[in-house]
Amino acid sequence: MILELKEVYVNYNHIQALQGISLNVGEGEIVALIGANGAGKSTALNAISGLLKTTSGKITYAGQDITGHSPQAIVRGGIIQVPEGRAILTTLKVRENLEMGAFTRKNNRMKEEMDDIFTRFPVLRAKAELPAGNLSGGEQQMLALGRALMAKPKLLLMDEPSMGLSPILVREIFHIITEINKQGTSILLVEQNAQMALEISGRGYVLETGRIALEDSSANLLHNEKVIHAYLGG
Ligand SMILES: Nc1ncnc2c1ncn2[C@@H]1O[C@H](COP(=O)(O)OP(=O)(O)OP(=O)(O)O)[C@@H](O)[C@H]1O
Ligand SMILES: [Mg+2]
Question: Which candidate among 76, 120, 124, 179 keeps its CA 20 to 30 Å from the CA of 142?
Answer without folding.
Answer: 76
